[in-house]
Amino acid sequence: MDLTPKQVALVEALLTEKSKEAAAKKAKVPSATMHRWLKLREFRQALREAGDESLRHATAKLSRSCVAAADRLVKEMEGRKPSAVRIAAADKILAHAARLADALDARDELDELKRRMEDLERGGNGPGDQGEPPAPGAPPPPP
User: Fold this and answer.
1) Distance between CA 98 and CA 66 in Å, rounded?
2) Are residues 26 and 74 in the same domain?
3) Mean pLDDT for the chain?
4) Which of 1, 39, 70, 109 is the most buried (most CB within 10 A)?
5) Is residue 30 part of a domain?
6) How far apart are alpha carbons 6 and 30 in whole angstroms?
7) CA-based diameter of the chain, in Å?
8) How many Å apart are CA 21 and CA 141, to the nearest integer?
9) How many CA atoms lie within 13 A of 104 on its CB side?
10) 62 and 10: one domain?
11) Domain check: are 60 and 90 in the same one?
């Protein structure tokens, strides 16, 4: 399903606004329509993909900032009058980058597990499981 321009506007608003209602208002979409669209698998997939892209951009930006943050921490540590504000900012950048990287890794692992479960539900043995019998109750693989 290709999204309509209104649906694209709602996806963008859902990623930037503080609430769903504010997003619907910004996208000029009635609240009931927004809730109906949110039940559509294709719309949710588009929203997730847009959110993933946003997270990738944020991760890249944080990654680029990590070197500067580490440099700032070293300079402040070696300086005569360290700035508590700059130290705190650099520390937060590094902490957020680490948490975001961990979250993205966990999400990738979860996506892989979901993909494997779907393979198993379709009767496959999944990657790396060649030769093992299918799960109890699963249909046998085709000859």
Assistant:
1) 10
2) no
3) 83
4) 70
5) yes
6) 11
7) 75
8) 47
9) 16
10) no
11) yes
Instruction: Take residue 114 and report the two structure tokens written for it.
Output: 């979901």
Q: Structural domain of residue 94, as residue ranges?
A: 55-122
17: tokens are 């606004």
What sign has the CA pseudo-torsion 122, 46, 96, 76?
A: positive
- Rounded Cα distance between 111 and 91, Å, is 30
The rounded distance, in Å, linking the Cα atoms of 79 and 26 is: 48
Regarding whether 68 and 18 lie in a shared domain, the answer is no
Torsion sign, CA atoms 85, 89, 94, 95: positive
| Whether 7 contacts 50, CB under 8 Å | no
Give Cβ neighbours of residue 34 (< 8 Å, ≥ 6 apart).
10, 20, 23, 24, 27
Is residue 5 pLDDT above 70, yes or no? yes
The closest alpha carbon to 96, from 69, 120, 136, 123, belongs to: 69
Q: What are the pLDDT digits (tens) for 68-97?
A: 888 888 877 777 777 887 788 778 888 888
Residue 98 lies in a domain: yes
Would the pLDDT of 45 be above 70?
A: yes
Q: Collapsing DSSP states into helix, strand and coil, what is residue 31? A: helix
